């Protein structure tokens, strides 16, 4: 697949996201990925918090409890693992449109200390919606606190009571998605 464009949209930049749009040569597969542009800073901050929290936990535990070497290693691993579950990588969302087959939605949010490839493999949530189940792809608007209006891409699915939400987009992504799907 070749990259069509990598764009940073003004509304998305307020939330510090950018879109990467890839399409294969015959136009049968379109992949749109929302990437946090602040991913590196957030990941470094999360790693720092996990490391400092682990060190603090070790010294606090050592002050109040006498443990064997095995007990100390186990407690260090437990503290590190629990903090890693709390402070995670930012979510990356991908929409893959397979012409005449359907839509695949993928969300990856892994552990801060693991490389991105491991997180993609172990922590990906993938959902495929077959073409015959897709009623339509729409840009919807919603209201959030403070009377803000947000726009997001959604998929209407047959016999479903809820919209399948994707990510905040613009008309450009909407037109690419509907053109590739239909």
From TrEMBL:
User: A Pfam family matched by this chain, by name?
Assistant: PIG-H
Determine if rRNA processing is one of this entry's keywords. Answer: no
Which InterPro entries does the UniProt entry name for this protein?
A: PIG-H, PIGH-H_dom
- The answer to whether keyword Flavoprotein applies is no
Record field: transmembrane: 44-65, 71-87
Q: Where is the signal peptide?
A: none
Q: Which GO terms describe its biological process?
A: GPI anchor biosynthetic process
Q: In which pathway does it act?
A: Glycolipid biosynthesis; glycosylphosphatidylinositol-anchor biosynthesis
Q: Record's Gene Ontology CC terms? A: glycosylphosphatidylinositol-N-acetylglucosaminyltransferase (GPI-GnT) complex
Which of UniProt's keywords are assigned here?
Answer: Membrane, Transmembrane, Transmembrane helix
Q: Where is the Phosphatidylinositol N-acetylglucosaminyltransferase subunit H conserved domain?
A: 94-167
Q: Which family does it belong to?
A: Belongs to the PIGH family.
According to UniProt, the name of this protein is: Phosphatidylinositol N-acetylglucosaminyltransferase subunit H conserved domain-containing protein
The species is Zygotorulaspora mrakii (Zygosaccharomyces mrakii)
The beginning of the lineage is: Eukaryota, Fungi, Dikarya, Ascomycota, Saccharomycotina
């Amino acid at each position: 697949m070749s990259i069509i464009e990598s764009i940073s949209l003004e509304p998305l930049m307020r939330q510090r996201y950018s879109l990467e749009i890839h399409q294969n040569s015959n136009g049968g597969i379109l992949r749109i990925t929302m990437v946090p542009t602040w991913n590196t800073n957030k990941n470094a901050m999360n790693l720092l918090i996990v490391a400092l929290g682990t060190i603090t936990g070790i010294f606090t535990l050592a002050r109040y409890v006498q443990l064997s070497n095995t007990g100390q290693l186990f407690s260090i691993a437990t503290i590190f693992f629990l903090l890693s579950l709390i402070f995670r990588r930012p979510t990356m969302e991908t929409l893959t449109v397979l012409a005449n087959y359907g839509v695949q939605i993928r969300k990856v949010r892994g552990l801060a200390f693991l490389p991105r490839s491991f997180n993609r493999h172990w922590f990906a949530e993938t959902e495929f919606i077959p073409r015959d189940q897709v009623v339509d792809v729409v840009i919807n608007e919603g209201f959030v606190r403070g009377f803000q209006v947000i726009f997001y891409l959604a998929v209407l699915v047959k016999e479903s009571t809820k919209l399948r939400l994707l990510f905040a987009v613009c008309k450009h992504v909407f037109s690419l998605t509907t053109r590739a799907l239909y």
